[in-house]
Write the structure tokens for this entry.
Amino acid sequence: LTYVLPEGGFCAPALPGALTLSLDLLANEQVENIPFDHIFIEAGTGFMASALILGLNWLQHPAHVHVILLAEDEAAFMMRLKLCHAMFHAF
């Protein structure tokens, strides 16, 4: 079975892997014994930033995520965040 991911990997099969970023962040907090309260992430397609927001929200992490938009405007990012949210709940 072969699945070709689109550029940027913005698709449902890539979401579980992208969600591990929030788990890695929690592991780093524990290793360093430093709570992260502000997290900055750049966004091309917005997929990893969306996954980070969704993962931290699901884990009830209180950090504020700052998304630096490189390719699109805020409205486009929010639309993609909603799409990721729908993919997340479909799992």
In short: The two ends are 20 Å apart (CA to CA).
